[in-house]
Amino acid sequence: MTKEPPIMVVNKTRKSTSRKRTSATTSTRRPNSSKTRKNGGRKGKKVGRRWEVPAWLYYLLMGGAAALVIIGFYYFFIRPYAYRWRPCSGIKAYGVCLPAGYEVYGFDVSHHQGTIDWSELQKTQNSPFPIRFVFLKASEGGDFSDTAFINNFNRAREYGFIRGAYHFYNPKTDAERQAEFFIHSVNLEPGDLPPVLDIEKTGDDENKLKQDLQVWLKIIENHYKVKPILYTSYKFKTRYLNDSIFNTYPYWIAHYYVDSVEYKGDWKFWQHTDAGRLPGIREDVDLNVYNGSLDELKKLTIQQTDSINKVIE
Question: What does the pLDDT look like over 28-64, one tens digit per residue?
């Protein structure tokens, strides 16, 4: 009996110590067990292999992309101006290669060329390749007047250029309205070139376009008593307007960066570049040649008898 208290005390002490150790042991093992479960979960999942691009395919794709960039750069930035670096088979003047075999040169402008110094431009008339004629944009559609037309049209005659006026046709606007608008905008006089119809767009209906163009041409011809000039590109003419009706009108062909006209029919004017440089004009300008002599060009202009007939009617 005398030994019981120490034994009881010892047993209690061991129990309490055992609990503490157990709890301590348990608390330290929980993180490990959770990690084990996580690791075990990871081991249980199937991890897919990441696909890698073979080296040969990578370089092939990079080479293809580089080739596309180079081709695109050439097509949009080099090809249109390649004529600047190729040998000139004609005459080098006004920043471009003038076609060989022609003696009458001209240009055409609109408000896009800005303010023109006509006194400076007049100096080209005494150059080795004198500029003789100019076409000026007068109107577009049924209600747009070129803001520079009146001043340029008057200055052209004042400084001795054979002048002409053109209308930019809009297929979405009534043809009769466009013709009347041009007549209201342009007063042609003897010595001026015939009025010009500039057609570059087809609209939604090709057949309707042809009918409407004939309406415009007939109204203009009846008013000015002279056959209008038809301006359009080589491709547009051969595809849409190459028939017995439109072939009767003097043709002004637009065909850039070639040494000679590919069109097989008759033509009067050739717009051969849009990158010409003339004194007195800060912006690039379209340059043209006339397919004939200066005397023949003057015969193409509106004559005094044509003007008289217009006044009588």
Answer: 455 554 444 445 455 555 556 677 888 888 889 999 9
Backbone angles phi, psi at 53, to 5 degrees: -70, 125
Domain membership of residue 173 (yes or no) is: yes
Q: How many distinct structural domains can be found in the chain?
A: 1
3-state secondary structure the chain: CCCHHHHHHHHHHHHHHHHHHHHHHHHHHHHHHHHHHHHHHHHHCCCCCCCCCCHHHHHHHHHHHHHHHHHHHHHHHHHHHHHHCCCCCCEEECCEEECCCCCEEEEEECHHHCCCCHHHHHHHHHCCCCEEEEEEEEEECCCEECCCHHHHHHHHHHCCCEEEEEEECCCCCCHHHHHHHHHHHCCCCCCCCCCEEECCCCCCCHHHHHHHHHHHHHHHHHHHCCCCEEEEEHHHHHHHCCCCCHHHCCEEEECCCCCCCCCCCCCCEEEEEEEECCCCCCCCEEEEEECCCHHHHHHHCCCHHHHHHHHHC
Distance CA 238, CA 266 (A): 12
- With respect to residue 199, please indicate whether it lies within any of the assigned structural domains: yes
How far is residue 172's CA from residue 174's CA, in Å, rounded to a whole number? Answer: 7
CATH of the domain at 166: 3.20.20.80
Catalytic residue check, 266: no
Task: Tell whether the model's pLDDT for residue 3 goes beyond 50.
Answer: no
The distance in angstroms from the start CA to the end CA of the chain is: 155
40 part of a folded domain? no
Is 243 designated active site? no
Catalytic, out of 103, 120, 158, 200 = 200
Catalytic, out of 108, 146, 192, 286: 108
By residue range, what is the domain housing residue 300?
Answer: 89-312
pLDDT attached to residue 55: 87
Evaluate whether residue 220 is within a structural domain: yes
- Give CA–CA dist 166/137, Å, rounded: 5
